[in-house]
Amino acid sequence: MLDIGPLELITLVVLAVLIFGPDNLPKVIQDVSRTLRKIRQFSESAKEDIRSELGPEFKDFEFEDLNPKTFVRKHVLEKDELGLKEIRNGFDFKAEMSDLTDAVHSRTPEAPPATPDLLKKQDRPAPGERPPFDSDAT
């Protein structure tokens, strides 16, 4: 419920005993539980008042549906009137992207990409022969 582990719970109990003392702790627990109960009752009565004011068509209205994630999950993803699951399952995005990449780089899908072997030793010019001149590099 509150994602409190056993060690954290023990720490909270020890702190409560140290702060309120062992004599006052039962009364504090009763007061806190009574306050939480009143807050829940107030919340439920407010929800019922809102439902009654909205009318009979909203009698099964849940306030959790106002959360956008819950609303989308309930009205769009569960019904699937548009066949979105079928469309989504019909696409293989990885294959589509690799085909697109191959088309951009003008590669055929059968041929592996031509990559230069950078570790291969380059041919050196013969003695007395000049290396090729690259005007862009100078």
Automatic annotation (TrEMBL):
It is a single-pass membrane protein. Residues 101-138 are annotated as: Disordered. Keywords: Cell membrane, Membrane, Protein transport, Translocation, Transmembrane, Transmembrane helix, Transport. Pfam families: TatA_B_E. GO terms for molecular function: protein transmembrane transporter activity. GO terms for cellular component: TAT protein transport complex. The keyword Transport applies. InterPro entries: TatA/B/E, TatB. The keyword Glycosyltransferase does not apply. It is found in: Cell membrane; Membrane. GO terms for biological process: protein transport by the Tat complex. Belongs to the TatB family. Part of the twin-arginine translocation (Tat) system that transports large folded proteins containing a characteristic twin-arginine motif in their signal peptide across membranes. Together with TatC, TatB is part of a receptor directly interacting with Tat signal peptides. TatB may form an oligomeric binding site that transiently accommodates folded Tat precursor proteins before their translocation. This is Sec-independent protein translocase protein TatB.
